[in-house]
Amino acid sequence: EKIIVVTHGQANDPFWSVVKNGVEEAAKETGADVDYRAPETFDMVKMGQLIDAAVNQQPDGLVVSIPDADALGPSIERAVQAGIPVISMNAGSDVSKKLGALLHVGQDEFTAGKRAGEKLKEMGGKDALCVNQEVGNVSLDQRCAGFKEGFGGKVEVLPTSNDPTDVKSKVQAALQSNADIDTILGLGAATVGEPAVQAVEAVGRGGKVNVASFDLSAGFLKDVADGKAAFAIDQQQYLQGYLPVVFLHMYAKYGLIPASDVASGPNLITKDKASQVIELSAKGIR
Amino acid sequence: MADKTPATNGREATPIVHMDKIEKHFGNIIALAGVSFDVVAGECHCLLGDNGAGKSTFIKTMSGVHKPTKGEILFEGKPMVFDSPRDAMDAGIATVFQDLAMIPLMSVTRNFFMGREPTKGRWPLKRMDMQKANDETMRAMRELGINLRGPDQAVGTLSGGERQTVAIARAVYFGAKVLILDEPTSALGVRQTSNVLATIDRVRKQGVAVVFITHNVRHALAVGDRFTVLNRGKTLGTAKRGDITGNELQDMMAGGQEMAELEGSLGGTV
Amino acid sequence: MADKTPATNGREATPIVHMDKIEKHFGNIIALAGVSFDVVAGECHCLLGDNGAGKSTFIKTMSGVHKPTKGEILFEGKPMVFDSPRDAMDAGIATVFQDLAMIPLMSVTRNFFMGREPTKGRWPLKRMDMQKANDETMRAMRELGINLRGPDQAVGTLSGGERQTVAIARAVYFGAKVLILDEPTSALGVRQTSNVLATIDRVRKQGVAVVFITHNVRHALAVGDRFTVLNRGKTLGTAKRGDITGNELQDMMAGGQEMAELEGSLGGTV
Amino acid sequence: MADVAPIVADERLKREGVVTTLMKRPELGAVAGAIAVTIFFLFTASPTMFTLSGVMNFMTPAAQLGILAIGAAMLMIAGEFDLSIGSMVAFSGLIFGAFVVTFGMPLVIAIPATFAIAAALGVLNGTIVLKTGLPSFIVTLAFLFILRGASLVGLKIATGGSTQLRGVRDALSGDWLAPIFSGNAFTGLFTYLGKIGVIDTFPNGTTKVPGIPVEILWFIAFALIATYVLLRTPQGNWIFASGGDENAASNSGVPVRKVKISLFVLTACCATLVAIITVIDAGSTDARRGFMKEFEAIIAAVIGGCLLTGGYGSAIGAFFGAIIFGMVTIGLTYTNFDQDWYQVFLGAMLLAAVLFNNFIRKRVTGER
Amino acid sequence: MADVAPIVADERLKREGVVTTLMKRPELGAVAGAIAVTIFFLFTASPTMFTLSGVMNFMTPAAQLGILAIGAAMLMIAGEFDLSIGSMVAFSGLIFGAFVVTFGMPLVIAIPATFAIAAALGVLNGTIVLKTGLPSFIVTLAFLFILRGASLVGLKIATGGSTQLRGVRDALSGDWLAPIFSGNAFTGLFTYLGKIGVIDTFPNGTTKVPGIPVEILWFIAFALIATYVLLRTPQGNWIFASGGDENAASNSGVPVRKVKISLFVLTACCATLVAIITVIDAGSTDARRGFMKEFEAIIAAVIGGCLLTGGYGSAIGAFFGAIIFGMVTIGLTYTNFDQDWYQVFLGAMLLAAVLFNNFIRKRVTGER
Ligand SMILES: Nc1ncnc2c1ncn2[C@@H]1O[C@H](COP(=O)(O)OP(=O)(O)OP(=O)(O)O)[C@@H](O)[C@H]1O
Ligand SMILES: Nc1ncnc2c1ncn2[C@@H]1O[C@H](COP(=O)(O)OP(=O)(O)OP(=O)(O)O)[C@@H](O)[C@H]1O
Ligand SMILES: [Mg+2]
Ligand SMILES: [Mg+2]
Q1: Residues on chain E touching A163 (C-beta within 8 angstroms)
Q2: Segment 123-142 of chain B within 8 Å of chain C by CB
Q3: Where do the ABC transporter domain residues begin and end (chains B, C) (predicted)?
Q4: Residue D363: what pLDDT?
Q5: Concatenated DSSP letters of E259-327
């Protein structure tokens, strides 16, 4: 039995590599032949073509993320037409049913961002930076948009590259030129969260600026545990990879499928929980 | 020879090209320091001079490659500014540059007709007439004594003389009113050289004005009607055919400096 | 002239370079179809022939640029394979290529010493001796009759003759045992030409073997000890100085084909 | 001079076969690479890759890339680069999307207007390069950033804050020009073929391949026209000459400036064509569209035999270069390897394809 | 021949000022660009940008980029490209991280071992390019993919599933070689300067700037050495010659192959140096390190006056090119511009910097 997973996240993206690890674990446990595919950059056109390629191979199940329902819709509908059971994950909870997917695992980036914003607002934040390492990647943009809504205060989006040195310098520059910044939200723990903590320390504002980040990395969790950072937002994306495969396996085998969507997050990892998950994170499970 | 300069005053015909007190500077380098020169239809005007005298720079201003820093160009009596070599060509001036101006990776035919390709058919099917272009190229080359293996050999793989012949044949083919030849025979064999000299003679008789640059006094004397000598960016003067001997000319071309003594048959002109 | 070939058999000295039945093909093009040639110390051996005869290809195999398709090269009596021009240079062969082998964007001095830069100081501070390099370059150029404005002018902005002189001066400077000159005087003025011919004479007397390619019969006769004529990739034969007249040589160089008739002083040799 | 030597068979030429003659053309090397890649996938990939729908599936991205690659190749032959192609795809997509969705224009106005803006940007690129004499690499690089940034800002303005503009498909439903720029051609024929069983159908009866995606037709047509222009027209001659040696070309009377500016316009228009096709097809556009496509286009052109230094290359080469690239990127998903290894395979296959092409050419044409 | 003409002042030369002579050098154009950018930020950016800590802040990424850019510039002068630099940063980082963390090697072994592996890859790159005659663009592009993919696979193996390898700092605590490759230099001096009030301190008494980040010192040292090699040694001459005209250089006796292979090794080693510095500093490495750095390095080299066609350029130019690029990317965060416009500004400033540089040079040196 063959299951194909097509997402919009590259295999070397820290977030998506965890999803992929979940997929592999499920494959091992179910014995299914599972392939993970993703375009090399955030590229909706290419992703549609990858879904088409998957449909051509007539798999017994298809798992997709849906960051752009317009662009991917026709390809997903084609899969459904071909009689392939489809489960959506991560992005696209709102359109999943309409396009004919069986169910959705995971939750919206927007909701997660909003949740983080609310929490940081609670912690007293008024003036925030949303550090985006890949501007134009819609799912990252949505995290910032959700954050803006939940936070309520002043939010500036700081575009950076994937390079930690670059991120650190830019965050440092932003902190130096604007003394009012009291909150930083990173959209990736290893690429943005860790250097942002370093930048805050470097300008001597440790303790005065709340740093939070999406996703987990061992380094950032350690910062959380040490009190240098506020919290990490975890979607438990391992489940977003693991569950759909298991569900599809069950569906193929016995026709069993949960009746409603599964929300895998958001889940805020704060100081008390951080040290427990460091090890798992270092292995690419959280 | 400065005293011989007035010799040209007696000419009647208005020159096709008249260059007046041309100066050309490259940054801080002064290549031409005020050179006047003219050429009339049906004559071959030789431009002579030592290495680095400024001959190539001068004819490049004439053919639109360089803009003169100072001075005026009169074409058929009217002041003219050539913005590009294409303008000069459209006016009927064709040039063999010393560096030949050819594209090594392209075939002989394509180089030959570069910029003025023969076409056939009508738009949108107007296309290069490759058959005609190939034939004309082979014919023109054979006339100058070069039997090419084929018209599609890349110019970069031709021998030095073959390549020079392509450039000459092209200029002769397109030189409607003025033909400028910058050391055209430098890489040519004896047979090809005599063909080129004969060609110069022929086109001159057809009424084309020829500007001929050479270091070979014998070649200059064989076809030249007038001789202008440049030295270090200035004119030393102009002489008519018959007013000057080969040895006098040779001395002037050497810029007045002494030559190394040679035994043997080189006692006379090099 | 085939009957004159044995004339060379009488020579005693073993040749420095002996090329035996060299063939060279480029894809489907046969440039050399079996050419044998040798040169001994202290002689100037002229290589003559029509355009495209294969002269440049031949000397390029001698100087390590091309590998022969067939045939053998003996250097000082021993079979030798040059993997690169650098090997040939290390063996003492210096060449002026027809295309000069210079880098237009680099200065005269840097081109002059390219590949064999003079250094001073010790590692790690071993560095180019620019002062010496500049002085030597200017001196070598002046000896051949070119007064450069400065040693740091880019070669690309030199006049054709100036550039050629750089290449010649460089080869003479480094030509320890064999000096190969491919049409070295083609772009030179009369004064520079006589300097180059005098230089050939001088180095030959110092025991260097000189291979001299030219299209100018008078130049060949002025300095040549032996004359080999190539035609369409084959040797027409070799003659000693004195065994052949200028007109005979000229006819052979034209490849036996007729030349265009010319009026005036060109009746004799071009 | 009258007695010109007659044309005789030249003893200085060896005979050579048709194969050799053909293989000397730059484009035919790329064909060898394409064949090698095909053979590789025939052995390793799921057989569905070479079914009709599989072929359409990898030809679609190849076609989109190829349209850009052919434009890039022509510009490279003329000795210049355009690094702004990828950003131009995003920018044109935004302009086009805004015209259609925000201003509600019909295609017959929106498309020419988008092309006009793209062409103007092409002229701007070209003019800056030629007037200043700066390398086109750096000038178009600046436009890579500027246009990418402008797309982001423009999208936010057009959508009121999002980086994704949706609703193009709805806005265009029923527009008579849409079938030329989107969807599939020959759908009628394919449905018929499906009915009579010549091509596969889904269980519900629709054909697996509804038709030929229009970009493939555009791609083929463009490759043919570009090849014709390059090889058979004076303009083609000028393109090669401009790239081979700008000075020599200009000294021989080639209007180098006009040639280069036209080609900058061409690359901008190629990007716009791809933008229009993908925006209509996807029904949306976002700020990441066309990301890195400039490099992929240059890669495809180089695989197809273009020299980075200009003066050499072919449109057909770029055509096959794009197919090789498309086949490798999509084809790998038909095989059973782990996605983690994807890039290793991609790199290895690219190298293998060009090495093979090179090896074949050297074998066939003899040394050098 | 004895009576050689004497050297006389040449009447064919106009006098020219020192400024003109200086401005003719390619590197000094880049200085003009750097000055223009500085002036721009002096007026628009928060004054903290040009405090000591602000300068260190933008010089750190500039230095990391610059080390790559100088290597890339030297290779470009020799007429070749290395597109694998960025992936090489990730790959060397992985190798180094694995040596230190997984195998527990001390730096004195791990560093030479990492460099050895990088050098071997450089030799491989160079050999393939030279043996096959394929363009280096395409060969190193293949390695761009291969090394990037290999880093991912290697990281997953080394960590058991994560794309981030951490624990480098712990593994190295106390290693005597670490201060040469990480952290800050002259900390003692800076603490002293802080005490006597010459430089700013935080309320708790520590200096705002603990020292000079070592990469800046490496960067400066490397720029000086590279400049010395290029301008003052035979090897420098060979580099220019190889890029100016490979055939002519080889015909004049330059060992072109050796030169090029050495430079491929150099770029690989530059990438490794950057990898080691950043891995020790960050304490971790991940699969995305060095992403796109190859292009940034080439951009910096081109801003600094390198020609893409080879044969022209300078190390000092690349030095300032990297500073310009670093200053612009980081500097824009110090300004009040809406960060959505970031890329637009980045592009515009790059263009402005090179245009200014070009304008100045043309003004000073006269036409042409
Ligand atoms: N682009 C340039 N930049 C700087 N100097 C130049 C440039 N072009 C020519 N020169 C200089 O101007 C002088 C005249 O050069 P030109 O090529 O006109 O000489 P020429 O008379 O043709 O010499 P030759 O007989 O050797 O061809 C030379 O000394 C040369 O160095
Ligand atoms: N790389 C090459 N590829 C193909 N053909 C070549 C190549 N090099 C030379 N040839 C051909 O070989 C023949 C001999 O060329 P070569 O340059 O040796 O002639 P040459 O005797 O030096 O002529 P010239 O006096 O004109 O310089 C020419 O017909 C040329 O077209
Ligand atoms: Mg000249
Ligand atoms: Mg020759």
Answers
A1: 61, 289-291, 293
A2: none
A3: 17-257
A4: 66
A5: HHHHHHHHHHHHHHHHHHHHHHHHSEEETTTTTTHHHHHHHHHHHTT--TTSS---HHHHHHHHHHHHH
Q: How far is residue D53 from each of residues A81, D50, D212, D321, measured CA to CA in Å?
A: 15, 8, 10, 21
Rounded CA Rg of chain E: 22
Tell whether D52 is covered by a domain: no
Q: Give the A window 23-82 contacts with E, CB below 8 Å.
A: none
DSSP 3-state assignment of A129?
Answer: strand
Domain map of chain C by residue range? 5-265
Residue with tokens 């490798």: D328
Contact by Cβ (8 Å): A219, E283: yes
ipTM reported for the complex, 2 dp: 0.89
Torsion of CA A201, A204, A207, A211, to 10 degrees: -50
Inter-chain CB proximity E15 and B28 less than 8 Å: yes
Nearest of B127, B130, B86 to residue B108 by alpha carbon? B130
Residues of D in contact with E133 (CB under 8 A): 358
Alpha helices by DSSP H, listed for B40-157, are: 55-62, 85-90, 108-112, 130-143
Q: What is the number of the ligand closest to the CA of C58?
A: 2
CATH annotation of C5-265:
3.40.50.300
| Interchain CB contact of B27 with C (< 8 Å) | no
Q: What distance lies between CA D109 and its chain's CA centroid?
A: 25
Structural domain includes residue E26: no
E133-153 pLDDT per residue, tens: 888 988 998 999 999 999 999
R_g (Cα) of chain C, nearest Å: 19
E342–A contact, CB cutoff 8 A: yes
Question: Are D291 and A48 in contact (CB < 8 Å)?
Answer: no
CATH of the domain at E147: 1.10.3470
What tokens were used for D327?
């086949």
pLDDT in tens, chain D (368 residues): 334 444 455 666 776 666 666 666 666 677 888 888 899 999 988 888 898 888 988 999 999 999 999 999 999 999 999 999 999 999 999 999 999 999 999 999 999 999 999 999 999 999 999 998 888 988 998 999 999 999 999 998 988 888 889 889 888 888 888 888 988 888 888 888 888 877 777 777 777 788 899 999 999 999 999 999 999 999 999 999 999 999 999 999 999 999 999 999 999 999 999 999 999 988 999 888 998 899 899 989 988 888 888 888 889 999 999 999 889 888 888 888 888 888 898 888 888 888 877 777 666 655 44
CA distances, A124 to each of A117, A153, A210 (Å): 11, 10, 9
**Mean pLDDT, rounded, of chain C:** 86
Q: What is the pLDDT of residues B230-266, one digit of tens each?
A: 998 999 889 999 898 888 888 888 876 666 555 444 5
Q: How many domains does chain E have?
A: 1
Q: Closest Cα of chain C to D14: distance in Å?
A: 5
DSSP B174-211: H-SSEEEEESTTTT--HHHHHHHHHHHHHHHHTT-EEE
Instruction: Give the minimum alpha-carbon distance from B89 to chain C in angstroms, rounded to a whole number.
Output: 23
- Whether E310 is in a domain gets the answer yes
Cα of D254 vs centre of ligand 3, distance in Å, is 22
Residue D284 phi/psi, 5-degree rounding, is: -155, 170
Chain E neighbors of C130, CB-CB under 8 A: 232
pLDDT attached to residue C258 = 62
Q: Return the structure tokens found at D268.
A: 């901008």
C60 C-alpha to ligand 4 centroid (Å): 10
CA distance D85 to D71: 9
**What is the extent of the structural domain holding D254?**
58-169+185-363
Please judge whether E11 and B232 are an interchain contact, meaning their C-beta atoms are less than 8 angstroms apart.
Answer: yes
If you ran DSSP here, which 8-state letter would residue B155 be given?
G
Give the closest-approach CA distance of C196 to chain D in angstroms. Answer: 30
